[in-house]
Design brief:
Bound molecules: dicarbonimidic diamide
Number of strands: 10
Number of helices: 9
Shape: globular
Distance between the termini: 12 Å
């Protein structure tokens, strides 16, 4: 196994693999499937669906190596007590958070549309982090779960690149985690925002972290044994 991943703006040094986690942000039906919140807001959801094969490959490799996998879900309590009015009122689709849509109440925990897409269904033992905000550290158990496992390095994937993914990566960077965003395993409804986010992360010598392709990650992890 390699000791680094070929990345931008320079190679990403790999730690002992048990310190590495795959973070899959908000790969939920509400964002990826027709009829969900993303489409109701007027977005082209097929752009997000396009990354599923890359995320599946990374997930399969992490599972095969016995490494930590973390799934996040953007969701709120049914009474919306964890959803500030500022967040609820700002989305200006035909429906908003908490309203009933084709896949149940939008962004409400436990509703069909709030679930992770079937291709990426979490397996027993994988960490699931429900989050009321865009960042995965805000009002969640993520720090505790990472510390419990001795995780220091995060490979980040999911949607959307400039919203929940970038917010989480910045939160993680400020907390001292070494973060790499997998460039073709994250997507935005806006290709220009995706590109700008990758550029912002790697600018100034990797001010927020690294980016690399799925292929580069898989190549580096080839031959890795059990953690
Ligand atoms: C958004 C997310 N875009 N998961 N959520 O509201 O990025």
């Amino acid at each position: 196994m390699a000791d680094q991943i070929a990345a931008q703006p320079y190679s990403y040094p790999l730690p002992p693999l048990k310190q590495l986690a795959l973070v899959i942000i908000d790969m939920q039906r509400d964002f990826l499937e027709p009829g969900g919140f993303g489409e109701i807001l007027g977005n082209e959801v097929s752009r997000l669906e396009a990354i599923v094969p890359q995320v599946e490959k990374l997930l399969a490799r992490f599972r095969a190596l016995g490494l930590t996998v973390i799934h996040t879900l953007e969701c709120h309590r049914p009474d919306l007590s964890d959803c500030p009015p500022s967040k609820r009122n700002r989305g200006k689709g035909t429906l908003t958070i908490g309203d009933s849509g084709p896949m149940g109440r939008i962004l409400i925990a436990g509703e069909p549309g709030n679930g992770i897409i079937p291709a990426l269904t979490p397996q027993p033992g994988e960490v699931i982090i429900p989050k009321p905000g865009k960042g995965a550290f805000y009002h969640t158990d993520l720090t505790a779960e990472l510390e419990k496992r001795g995780i220091t390095h995060l490979l980040i994937t999911g949607v959307t690149t400039e919203v929940c993914v970038q917010t989480t990566m910045r939160e993680a960077n400020d907390r001292g985690y070494e973060c790499l965003l997998v460039s073709d395993a994250t997507a935005s409804y806006f290709p220009e925002f995706h590109a700008a986010t990758l550029a912002m992360i790697t600018a100034q010598g990797g001010i927020v972290g690294w980016t690399a392709t799925t292929e580069a990650v898989l190549t580096a992890l080839e031959g890795g044994g059990e953690a």
